[in-house]
Design goal:
By secondary structure, the protein is an alpha+beta fold. 16% of the residues lie in helices and 37% in strands. Strands 1, 2, 3, 4, 5, 6, 7, 8, 9, 10, 13, 14, 15 and 16 form a 14-stranded mixed beta sheet that branches.
């Protein structure tokens, strides 16, 4: 049964409701559709969802969208936010943030520049570890780095590819092989941004962070013991970024934060470590997600 307030809303002109809802966010529009019949009609209108859909959507790979695309703008938004779609060159996937409509991306290991790793090198089949790995064979494999002296992983992104006036977080998705060493210390150096305006992190790939048992207990950081025991002491890790375990058995580590503004130069993402023996890193890709404010 509708409340008196909802009945009053029913009397407002639909054009006014459409205008008001279009000034909010996709998350607000989804919620507004449940308020009343009038709100439902306004919140489902193409006018509202045309505002939330990016006007500069990239070109998608063939067969990523059904031959008969969604008949409404809201239907298209749902399709692009429910699961990722492969872009034309198939090295990158895009998905819209359901709350904000921002474009988010996953860059496969094939899209990364990994120093001293040959394209004909050791690729590991991912299988069904990722819910949407079936979308694109390049996301069915990860780069297994052999024993290296130093680590250098980089990728560049054009700012027009990302949503404007949006803050992004960069994460690397990876795991450690059964046999690993040298990925604890010296710590890796991560950066994300344009030249002169990068955010930087110290990272320890050979470990993980575990949430505290209570709200007042800080997260606990653990360094994993490797095949080759260390003879020196690892320095304090208070300001070092540690990976978090994902439910699919992989890990992700934050590489940095960057606010994309109109007119920014080329955006670089990197993870490097000085010449130092290491082994056992398996890289699946890099994810760029919009940061939730508030």
């Amino acid at each position: 049964m509708e409340t008196p307030a909802a009945c009053e809303i029913e009397r407002l002109p639909e054009d006014l409701l459409v205008h008001v809802i279009s000034l909010t966010s996709p998350a607000d529009a989804f919620r507004a559709a449940a308020v009343s019949r009038a709100f439902h009609a306004a919140a489902d209108s193409d006018t509202v969802w045309s505002r939330f859909l990016p006007h500069d959507l990239p070109r998608f790979a063939k067969k990523e969208l059904p031959r008969k695309p969604p008949s409404t703008k809201k239907g298209l938004f749902r399709r692009l936010s429910d699961e990722p779609v492969l872009l034309l060159h198939k090295f990158v996937r895009m998905q819209l943030d359901k709350a904000t409509g921002a474009k988010c991306f996953t860059l496969s290991a094939t899209a990364l520049q990994i120093k001293h790793f040959s394209r004909a090198g050791n690729w590991v089949r991912v299988g069904s570890d990722f819910d949407n790995s079936k979308r694109g064979k390049r996301f069915l494999q990860a780069a297994k780095l052999g024993c290296l002296q130093g680590l250098d992983i980089r990728v560049k992104v054009q700012p027009k590819m990302l949503s404007q006036n949006t803050t992004y977080m960069a994460y690397m998705v990876f795991k450690l092989a059964d046999w690993f060493y040298g990925l604890d210390f010296p710590f890796q150096e991560a950066s994300f941004g344009v030249a002169g305006r990068e955010s930087r992190r110290q990272v320890c790939l050979q470990g993980y962070v575990e949430e505290g048992d209570g709200a007042d207990e800080p997260p606990r950081k653990h360094v994993l013991q490797s095949y080759q025991p260390r003879r020196d002491t690892i320095p304090p890790v208070d300001d070092v970024q540690f990976p978090r375990k994902k439910t699919d058995g992989w890990m992700e580590v934050e590489l940095g934060e960057f606010h994309n503004e109109e007119g920014d130069g080329e955006i670089s993402i990197s993870l490097v470590q000085s010449a130092h023996g290491k082994c056992g890193l398996i890289v699946w890709g890099v994810e760029l997600r919009s940061k939730q404010q508030g």
